[in-house]
Amino acid sequence: MNNDTIISVEGLTKRFGDFTAVDSISFQVGKGEIFGFLGANGAGKTTAMRMLCGLSMPTSGKASVAGFDIYKQTEEIKRNIGYMSQKFSLYEDLTVRENIRFYAGIYGKTNSFIKEKTAFVLKQLHLEKDADKLVRSLPLGWKQKLAFSVAIFHEPQIVFLDEPTGGVDPVTRREFWNMIYKAAEDGITVFVTTHYMDEAEYCDRVSIMVDGRIDALDTPSGLKSNLKASSMDEVFLMLARKAKRTGD
């Protein structure tokens, strides 16, 4: 792992009984990179991410996140990352402001930092007038944007986003990706899982998981060029067919 590598994974594997959810994957992610972790539902993306976040213990292999070992230093990892789950990680019965303050408090930020950053987030999201509304009253797209803002509130080195744009309209998806670009510009490494192949075009590099394995890893343009494909959807279909033939 060199000085520009912030995530390093080698032979990482997770088994549940006889089922192998993640099958000896290896890759590296550079600092400040937007790294897409693509694949169909059930491909093993979320399982792999949970291991990297220190939320699930691997069966074998090794990995480090922000310089910390995923076996021995899970608490250090959690302090240096942000995490947004598929369910957005917000408390529906708390207000917008209360959600922000709650998560900021977990990371031990000072009251002055929390006050100043809360005002900034509310202004950025145009939620000043809605700060004291319960989160359950917000439209899905606004919940999504708020959850992302909360995940990076403490200015982590890396943010892990698990299917962050699921269930929202194309316009909101694009707005959300603009927020991802801004976080990357601010120096946050973004590790994002998705099953929307068109979102691969927004990433610096992507890996594509099929049946728990990484079948391809490159820039979007590199993948399309190597496979002579016109889109990332076509890339994924070609890899899926190849995997099926191999399995047969």
Automatic annotation (TrEMBL):
CDD domains xrefs: ABC_DR_subfamily_A
GO molecular function: ATP binding; ATP hydrolysis activity
UniProt keyword annotation of Aminoacyl-tRNA synthetase present: no
Pfam families: ABC_tran
InterPro entries from the UniProt entry: AAA+_ATPase, ABC_transporter-like_ATP-bd, P-loop_NTPase
Keywords attached to this entry: ATP-binding, Nucleotide-binding
Superkingdom to which the source organism belongs: Bacteria
Gene3D superfamilies noted in UniProt: P-loop containing nucleotide triphosphate hydrolases
SUPFAM superfamilies: P-loop containing nucleoside triphosphate hydrolases
Domain ABC transporter positions: 7-236
Name of the protein: ABC transporter ATP-binding protein
